[in-house]
Every structure is written in structure tokens, then in C-alpha cells.
Amino acid sequence: MTTGKKTEDSALERGLGLKEAVALNMIEIVGIGPFVVSSLVIRAMGGPQALIAWLAGALLATLDAFVWSELGAAMPKAGGTYVFLREAYGPERWGRLMSFLFVWQTFVQAPLSVASASIGFARYAGYLHPLSTLQAKTISGSLVIFLVILLYRRITTIGKISVLLWVGVVGTMLWLIWGGMRHFDAKMAFDFPPGAFHLSWVWFAGLGSAMVNTVYSYWGYYNICHLGGEIRDPQRNIPRGIFLSILGIAVLYLAMQTSILGVVPWRAWSPGWSCGSPWHRCFHCCWVIRVCLIRRRWMGISFRCFGECILGNIFRTCRCWFSGVSRFSSAFH
Q: Helix (H, G, I), strand (E, B), or coil: what is residue 177?
């Protein structure tokens, strides 16, 4: 057992600091979620009070973050959930089975997750330039290969890459927000319907439905727990990285949602309307130039965030497999 622990601890370099931890978390969180679910959140809440759902989602993510921070700081090793399950249920008892099942389910879940995101990347590329079926498959497959090659480097280099990608994510989101604020109409953004804050069971049902989507958009704040074996001073940097990433993402999501509400009337957001939907649906209620402005920025950030989310997904999954394989191989030495 001691050999297994030495193998896990000594094989990895602790080359990631706080800024790299925050960057890796945030590029994992900002996938396609907020761009797809915005319309669903607005329709569930029935107006601009949808901002409450985004705040509540951040609060719920923060409460869960306390658990992840505690576990990550107490057991800063590669694998995250694999290690937590093994130690929680006992490394010589049920923990072996639970951690084993977790690793094996990632062999199914992780490739499907990466594949779906890469397909989504190719679909969004199709909005920028029409693609045939073969071309779309080529783009999605090539993206995964490229990201695997990109990750085949020292952890310090990956940390620098993550910070660079983080700058791109935050920069393009701020570009989107700035584009909306330039044409911001406060009356349109805060056009609350009658009874918007009537706290009935229907209101809370709508809030619950909306929070399913907002919480989904915050997923990924626990990413660095799977990289615990490569974080410097993990007892400090893992909790700080988790909470700072949630705070930063919450501010960006709220600003983005507000800027969009100030350009596109919330009543025009039909169910299923998203950045990938035909924008002509809302041409009758807002200026074409406004819609094109938001569309250009939204498509740009969606396209970028797909690739960076896939990178974080592959990185996290590799560390889970590494921890499982290290544990398995130590049994033969």
C-alpha cells in the first residue's frame, strides 16, 4: 500500500500555482452551458428575474464547493474523486470497489463527453462556414487529436497554456458583454412582468427548474481537485482556486445575461432559442444590427469555449486514469 502512495506522489511535479488553478477551473466551467440554457432560464422564470436563478445557482455551487475544498485540501492527489471514494470507504475494503467502479465508468463517460463536445465544436464551426458531414467529422476528430498533443507536455507548460486560454475566455466574454452594453436599454433589460416577485409555489417551481440549468452552467469548479498531485501548496491553493473561479464566473454570467436582456427583449426568447438558433426569430422585435452584433460575439466565444472545455475534460480524465493505473500497477511490485 505504501508503494502505491509513493508512486502516486513522486511521479508528478507540483507545478501549478493559484493562477493556474483558477484558469483551469474557469476554462472548464465556461463550456457551452450558459449560451444554450439562457433562453431556458428566462422562460422558466418568466422575465428578467432570471438573474435570481443565476445568483441562486452560484450560491448552491458555493455550498458544494466547501465539500470539494475540504476533500481536495485533505487529499491533494491525482484522481480526485477516485482518491476520495477509496479513502472514504476504506482502501482495503469497499473503497477498492467504489474507486474501481468510478475509474471504469470514466472509460465510458469521458470519451462520450469529449466526443459530444467535439461534435458541438464542429457544429458551431458550421455557423461560421458551411461544412459537409465529412468535413464536420474531420474537424471534430482533428480537434481531439490536437488537444491530446497539446497536453503531452510538462505540467508547468500546461499551466502556462491554461492561463493563456483563460485570458482568451475572459477576454471574449468581456467583449460580448461590452458589445451588449454599447446598445444597452435598461427599460428592456428590467421589463418585469406583473407578479414577477410574487412568491407562490409556481414561482419557486420556476426557480427550481431554472436552477437545474444554471447549476449545470457552473459545473467544473471542482476540476483542480483531480489535479491535486500537481498543485503547489494545495491546502491553500485548492480552496482558493475553487471559490475564486465560482466568484469570477458568477460575475461574468450575471453581466452577460444582463447585457443580452438589454438588447434582445426577453419575450422574444422562445423555448430552445440559443446562440445557435436562427436569429431571424427575434428580428421583428429588435434592430437587425443589434442582433448581428451579439450573434458575432456569441458565436466567437462559443466556438472558443468548446475547444477549451474539451481540453480541461481530457486533462481531468487522464489524471483519474493515472491514479487508478498507478494503484493497480503497485499491486504487482
A: helix
> Partners of 231 in the beta sheet?
16
Q: Specify the pTM.
A: 0.76
Domain count, the chain: 1
- Measure the CA–CA gap between 221 and 84, rounded to whole angstroms: 16
C-alpha cell at 215: 447549476
31 or 101, greater pLDDT: 101
* Number of C-beta neighbours around residue 222 at 10 A: 24
Domain of 244, in residue numbers: 14-67+108-315
CB 150 within 8 A of CB 168: no
Q: Say how far apart CA 172 and CA 258 lie, in whole Å.
A: 16
What's phi and psi for 227, nearest 5 deg? -115, 20
In a domain, 96, yes or no: no
pLDDT tens digits along 17-52: 888 889 888 887 876 667 677 778 888 888 888 899
91 lies in some domain: no
225 inside domain: yes
Beta bridge partners of 227: 78
Conformation bin of residue 70: beta by default, left when phi > 0, alpha when psi is -120 to 50: alpha
Q: Would you say 16 and 236 are in contact if contact means Cβ atoms under 8 Å apart? A: no
Q: What are phi and psi of 16, to 5 degrees?
A: -110, 125
- Residue 167 has a pLDDT of 83
Residue 54 pLDDT: 92
Whether residue 320 lies inside any domain: the answer is: no
Q: What is the CATH number of the domain that holds 114?
A: 1.20.1740.10
CA gap 271, 43 in Å, rounded = 7
Give the CB-side neighbour count of residue 84, counting CA atoms within 13 A.
19
> Which residues, at least 6 apart from 96, have a Cβ–Cβ distance to it below 8 Å?
86
In this structure, what C-alpha cell is assigned to residue 313? 475534460
Residue 17 burial by CB count (10 A; 0-12/13-18/19+): exposed, middle or buried? middle
